[in-house]
Amino acid sequence: MSNTTLIDVFSTSLNIESNLVVDTLAYSEHPNWDSTAHMILITDLESAFDVMLEPDDIIDMSSVAKARRILAKHGVAF
Amino acid sequence: MSFWQLNANTSALACIAEDGRRVSYTQLQLAVEKKREALPAKRTLCAIRTQNTLATLINYLACLQSGHATILIEKSAPDAALLAIEKEYRPNVTLDEDTMTFSADCEHNLASELGLLLTTSGSTGTAKFVCLSFEALKENTSSICSYLPIKSTDTVLTTLPFSYSFGLSIVNTHLAKRACIVFNSASVMSPEFWQNVTTYNCTALYGVPFTFETLRRVGGLVKLPKSIRYLAQAGGYLNKQTKLLFHQHCESNNFEFYVMYGQTEATARIAYLPPEKLSQKPDAIGQAIPGGHLRLIDEGGKPVTSANIAGELVYEGPNIMLGYAESYRDLQFFSKLQTLPTGDLAFFDEEGDFTLQGRKKRIIKLNGERTNLDEVEAILGQTLGPIKVIGEDDKIHCFAEQNCGETSGKNELTAKHIATLLKFHPRVIEFTFVDCLPVLSNGKVDYTRLKTLC
Question: What is the complex's ipTM, to 2 decimals?
Answer without folding.
Answer: 0.78
